[in-house]
Amino acid sequence: MLHELNPFRPGAGVRPPELVGRQPEIDLVDLMVAKSRVKRNDGGLIIYGLRGVGKTVLLNELHRNVERAGWVTIQFEARPGSAGPIAARQSLGRGVAMAGRRMARFRSAVEDVKTAVSTVSSFALTIAGVSLNLGVAPSDHRANSGLIEVDLEELVADLAGPLQKNQSALAIFVDEMQDLDADLLTALLAVQHKATQSDWPFYVIGAGLPTLRRTMAEARSYSERFALHEVGALTHDSAIEALEKPARELGARFTRDALEEIVRESQGYPFFLQTYGKAVWDITPDRNIDLDVAVAGIAEGNADLDQGFFPARWDRTTPAERQYLRAIVDVGGSTASTAAVADHLGVAAASVSPARQSLIEKGIIYAERRGYVSFTVPNMDRFILRQPDTDS
Ligand SMILES: Nc1ncnc2c1ncn2[C@@H]1O[C@H](COP(=O)(O)OP(=O)(O)O)[C@@H](O)[C@H]1O
Ligand SMILES: [Mg+2]
């Protein structure tokens, strides 16, 4: 068995050997491209789900597809905390600058391109203090108000014509979108809304935690301009394919019961599938992966998860936060009402809200519904139960 050829790849944002079960999102973006060619814009796309389900990988795939179709793109990851807003504006400003450089080479509508590039320069300067040298001075009246929503709308309005005449569009890809500050989020939603009404070729494609579903519901009229897709565990058949196909391509095969055992244990979660797949491949003595190997591999995989995937979050918590997490498990498992958690800890809700807030900022829990918190990682509750309680 060629262990070096191990096709399975657990890791944040690491492309799997076979991207299964994501055709609806891929098709939707292909349709976006096709409609955009005939100057029609039906809005952007928001993908939400827990950690480890494959949002980043899917976003990267969609990004690659639209770049191949000739779109101009900006891609960045939002960050939590007080440094987040500045970092996001820097990424946006730099991304727009790169987009401007690409557009400067457009061959159609040269005068319009010049105007657009001058707006690009002014936007990059205003939003991020980035000075561009594209042979055109920054506009002194467009995208220079310092109000992100106004400036972004003017930018998109001025880019629309040249993009369309060059069979292109502008897409902004935002990962970890739940961490975007309210101003920038509102600006992106509002400008998507405006672009859809005006059929400007502009698209926001975002991914993040399930909190986004609530955020979008609260943004009402704007959220109509987005397709909202939940990505989660793979279906049984897709999970089987995620294991079987890469193995087959390398001349190895799983027995049916081995496949079923791995899929059952993973519950279809992509990160777990990759972890078990990798562990099984590492220990199998030959090209035939049977149930015994699968069971042993799953044990190895679980040990790896307990060393990496779970502690990546748990190890960053304070004793008070760990008590809060244990209380969630005690009262609810993977989801609990915040009132019940406080009650269980025997304190007033207000006194534990700093711990809750900080756990949300650390990306360990999220508040999908008002008054409830859930773990962002599948099976975190089971991991916590395995940890010795040394804090109380
Ligand atoms: N559709 C898929 N099929 C199989 N494995 C996948 C799929 N999507 C993602 N993965 C794997 O799952 C893991 C987590 O992917 P990632 O995109 O980082 O998830 P998220 O961004 O949702 O936390 C990676 O190891 C990746 O290779
Ligand atoms: Mg991710």
From TrEMBL:
Pfam families given in the database record? AAA_16
**In what residue span(s) does the Orc1-like AAA ATPase domain sit?**
18-195
List the molecular function annotations (GO) for this entry. ATP binding
What name does the UniProt record give this protein? ATP-binding protein
Which InterPro entries is this protein grouped with? Answer: AAA_16 (IPR041664), P-loop_NTPase (IPR027417), WH-like_DNA-bd_sf (IPR036388)
- Entry keyword annotation includes Nucleotidyltransferase: no
Per the UniProt record, the source organism is: Microbacterium enclense
Sorted UniProt keywords = ATP-binding, Nucleotide-binding
